[in-house]
Amino acid sequence: MTAPFRPGTIREAMGGIVALGLATFVAITTELVPVGLLPLLSADLDVTESVAGLLVTAYAVMVAALAVPLTLGTARLPRKGLLLTTLGLYTVSNVLVAVAPTFAVVAAARALGGASHAVFFSVSIGYASRLVLPHLTGRALSLVTAGAAVGFVLGVPLTTTLGTAIGWRPAFGVLAGACALATVLIAFLLPPVPGGGAPPSDATSASRRSALAVATTTNSLVYLGQYTVYTFVSLLLLGAGLQESALGPALLVLGALGLVGTAFAAARLDHRPRRTTVVTLVAVVAGMLAVGLAFPATVGVLVAIGVWSAGFGAVAPVFQAAAIRAHGASPDLTGALVNATSNVGIGGGAALGALVLARSGLDVVPFVGAGIVAAALVVVLVARRTFPATPTAAVADATVADATEPEMPSEREHPHA
Which structural domain, as residue segments, surrounds residue 156? Predict the structure, then answer.
């Protein structure tokens, strides 16, 4: 008889963390791979680049819309089996894109990938938090999130280079192979954990639900500000005098700086979560403001985007950890809310940035993004229960709040109602 799974240390859980990190890498790469292949896709499938760009936009919309309902609908399924299913669907999606005869088939295959993405990230966030002891949650999430950072830094440039060299269809085929490899590693390295349908016993507390709502709403606000500017980062670099031939290498180096922020979160998030969050958002705001002030000076813009990129590298684990530690819902539903609000911010930020660009010009865009992230920083400074000085403070505050709330007899008598 197999012993029940027990959370462990980072070292004990490292095999599962690495597998989840690789799976996260291929998931992010799958989401963003059309960005670098749009010219090839549009030319081969006889659609405009703006229409081809909908492959990315529609993907994000599907994730935002489906993350919560699909996570709730699959709540009773085994967590490991569900992750394996989503990775299998990623593989099928990329294979279908590689052989698609028309743009409509490509769009349908991408829709399948978007639905898989909605479940995968929701479950993987909760899964990572279950692999380790509670006081190691921040580091575990940071290490898994590093896979996403590497996806941003290397995944898209590599698939773009591959697509340019051998064609966009073989590039999607190679990505399908990477998804299949990640599926195998998850099958062998990731231990099964208990299901994610039931919320924590204390999640009925209004204070805990409020803390979760604050964490996820602030997360959406940060992504809104980020993608208001980041969507047009290539235009900012070109406007600052960078040559087109240098754009790819510059984005690669700047993206790699995001790993610095991820490493910072991994080192500090389990000890000083509030300070880590504040430093992260200050770096993002300062970097964006500096971009606006330095534009169009090449060196100034490059340095400023470097600071901003390093700060944003810590954003995902910071807000994932805050949401998980709120204990306002089951880990998987919490992951779904983080997943959905991130994608609402991504889609909304792209639309808002386009509006600002059209009406006010490129030089105004960084200031708008900085203002939105600054608003999120104000929320963090005010919401001390959601963003506590130490991880244990969140539990203590919520326990005090629970003790002062009136008892609800109906809930006590019918806990599963």
Answer: 13-197
State how many domains the chain has. Answer: 2
How far apart (Å, rounded) are the C-alpha atoms in residues 352 and 365? 9
Per-residue pLDDT of the chain (417 residues; tens, 9 = 90+): 455 667 778 888 888 899 999 999 999 888 878 867 777 888 888 887 667 777 877 787 888 888 889 988 888 888 899 999 999 999 999 999 999 999 999 999 998 998 999 899 888 888 888 888 888 888 888 888 788 778 777 777 788 778 878 888 999 999 999 999 999 999 999 888 776 555 555 545 788 889 999 999 999 999 999 988 987 887 898 889 988 778 778 877 887 888 888 889 888 888 899 999 999 999 999 999 999 999 999 999 999 999 999 999 899 889 988 998 888 888 888 888 988 898 888 878 888 888 898 899 999 999 999 999 999 999 999 999 999 988 765 545 544 444 444 443 333 333 333
Domain boundary among 152, 167, 197: 197
3-state secondary structure of 194: coil
Instruction: Tell me the pTM.
Output: 0.80
* Same domain assignment for residues 191 and 230: no
What's the CATH number where 339 sits?
A: 1.20.1250.20
Q: Does 398 fall in a domain?
A: no
Residues 269 and 143 in one domain: no
CA 169 → CA 106, 136, 163, 311, distances in Å? 11, 41, 7, 35
| Closest CA relative to residue 317, chosen from 202, 152, 149, 69 | 149
Asked if the structure places residue 303 within a domain, the reply is yes
What radius of gyration, in Å, describes the C-alpha atoms of the chain? 21
